[in-house]
Design a protein that fits this description.
Blueprint lengths: L2 H4 L1 E5 L6 H12 L2 E4 H9 L3 H8 L1 H15 L6 E4 L8 H10 L1 E6 L2 H8 L13 H18 L2 E4 L5 H11 L3 H7 L1
Parallel strand pairs: 1-3, 1-4, 2-3, 4-5
Helix pairs in contact: 2-9, 3-5, 4-5, 7-8
Length: about 180
């Protein structure tokens, strides 16, 4: 693994897994940048994922998320990047994840994800049945997340702070990345 790849940590997982919260905590703890998928979608498309689904459909939103991932893996390291949950569905995106940095899968069970994600108006797919949609989506995506993850953190049993600490303990490149600046 190159130092550049090691100095970019990609946070993947379902909505509600803690990518944004944990990404910000990691950035605060290290001084690295944190770039969130929602910001990258807005930067590349001028609107939110929810608005893209409403006006242009899910396929266009998936293309926007793929474009956001492409921008994310080009952010100059060191950086933490929050990746859209659905990008994992595309084989080319999975390859981009593997090549783009250390991939940390933040996972939690359906009940935890549902309690965290419900009520967030920027999440268009919860309109499709909430908990039942989450359970079906976990069954589809978990094997894909597992196929690219360098590290798995169970955010359902840890606080966001504990999750960030575990990532920093296990992704031991942080000091090397600081020294290379």
């Amino acid at each position: 693994m190159t130092l550049e790849r090691a100095c970019r940590v990609l946070l993947i997982g379902m909505m509600g897994s803690g990518k944004s919260t944990i990404g910000r905590l990691l950035a605060e703890a290290t001084g690295w940048k944190y770039v969130d998928n929602d910001e990258l979608v807005r930067r590349s498309h001028g609107t939110t994922a929810r608005e893209i689904v409403a006006t242009a459909g899910e396929a266009q939103m998936r293309r926007a998320e793929a474009a956001a991932l492409a921008l994310g893996v080009e952010v100059a390291p060191p950086a933490f990047i929050g990746v859209a949950a659905g990008t994992i569905l595309d084989a080319a995106n999975r390859e981009r994840l593997r090549a783009g940095g250390v991939v940390v899968w933040l996972r939690a069970d359906a009940g935890i994800l549902e309690s965290r994600a419900m009520g967030a108006n920027h999440r268009p797919f919860l309109d499709r049945g909430g908990g039942s949609w989450i359970r079906a989506t976990i069954a589809e995506r978990d094997p894909l997340y597992a196929s690219v993850a360098d590290l798995v953190i169970d955010t359902g049993t840890l606080t966001a702070e504990e999750s960030a600490e575990q990532i920093l303990d296990q992704v031991r490149v942080v000091d090397a990345c600081r020294e290379s600046r």
